[in-house]
Amino acid sequence: MSDLNHSPDQKDQLDLVYGLNDRPKPFIAFLAAFQHLLAIIVPIVTPGLLICLALGVSKEDTNMILSMSLVISGIATFLQCKKVGPFGAGLLIVQGTSFNFIGPIIGIGSAMVAAGTPVESVMAAIFGVVIAGSFIEMGVSQILPWVKKLITPLVTGIVVLLIGLTLIKEGLISMGGGYQAMGDKTFANADNLIMSCTVLALIIILNRIRVTWVKSSAILIALVVGYILAGFMGHLNFDGLKDAPLVQIPTPMHFGLSFSWSLFIPMAFIYIVTSLEAIGDITATSKLSNQAVDGPKWMERIKGGVLVNGANSFLAGIFNTFPSSVFAQNNGVIQLTGVASRYVGIWIAVLLILLGLFPSVAGIIQAVPQAVLGGAVMVMFGAVAASGINILSGVHLDRRALLIIAISLALGLGVAQVPQILEHLPELFRNIFSSGVATGGITALLLNIILPETKK
């Protein structure tokens, strides 16, 4: 291992326009921050919007949840960039609402709604679990070396792959128009398919254009075009703006708080995996910023970054939104622009908080038809699965590893597709294995411990 107090080797360093502690002039900092904003604003609000649509949350409450997702993401981004005591990595890191938790929240939340639980009570249980789970991530930040030994890249890759694969069903439902379209018999009609396929095709085309800002903003540009198309087709609904206040005042525990063990078990496991994902993202940002990627300074950044992951998820639960995590998107923007200044991150944080405090922003986003959103989320969910494959590609795939992958994917996807297999199990086991991600992840973890590694 290299001396941790030194920068990476000269040959590995990027030629940065602005280094980690450089202070660009305000106008340049704003432009750089705006480019990051184009790449992240859609992924930040999408998880909350999908969950609210699936569970039938009122438009007013959805507006509040989306606004708070922007505010909480801004607070986390500020902490990551500024570094306040033990909180934060001190790098240009953007944090936002995590896609990892969508599957279990929609799956178990929908089951609670179907069983007759009022939506407000379901949301109270969800946010209670978000708060409880955040302590797991904060705890993990203090014992990272031990957790990394137990949950290896093989286990992490399988879980991330399962998250992506189980979300694809939700993506297809969105492309067809969502659960509401299923109810009113308009699911997958010509209008919905035209809107969703147009957005999907545009994202593919824009990603092939060799212009930096176009590539990094491909999803946002495609959604704007889809939004305009939906307007021409008469599918924009601005009901969410009607009763929206001029300024959104953060309201702690708007739905109250309760708890659900059936949701907590899969969420707890995903909190751990999200922590390990953050290690990879923070390390990548550190390398792109020409900072150390091993040793004490690197470990301090990792611990601070994962601690903010957990602490901000705690804040998210208190202020009625969903868990957040380090985003990988900003690493691509840093690499393309050569701007790694953490002071740009503070500009990003301020812009996110300002956008979140004005509900009209969330109302305009909420007006987008779910079919338009579906074309984008299919790419996002596929990217999550591809990220899992990328993690597994760095693992030595011998017979043992392939066996663990095969069994974990089979059981995880099997439970997701045929949940009736758990009907006659005791309630405790139904709660534990009701999520395909939890089933596959626990299987991977146990097999990784039980099956001896082949000596090289």
TrEMBL record:
Recorded GO CC terms: plasma membrane
Broad class of where this protein is predominantly found: membrane
Superkingdom field: Bacteria
Keywords: Cell membrane, Membrane, Transmembrane, Transmembrane helix, Transport
Membrane-spanning parts: 27-56, 91-115, 121-138, 150-168, 188-206, 218-238, 258-279, 344-365, 371-389, 401-422, 428-451
Keyword Repeat: no
GO molecular function: xanthine transmembrane transporter activity
Membrane topology: Multi-pass membrane protein
Subcellular localization(s) per the UniProt record: Cell membrane
One Pfam family cited in the UniProt record for this chain: Xan_ur_permease
Keyword Ion transport belongs to the record: no
Family: Belongs to the nucleobase:cation symporter-2 (NCS2) (TC 2.A.40) family.
Entry protein name: Xanthine permease XanP
Source organism (scientific name): Acinetobacter faecalis
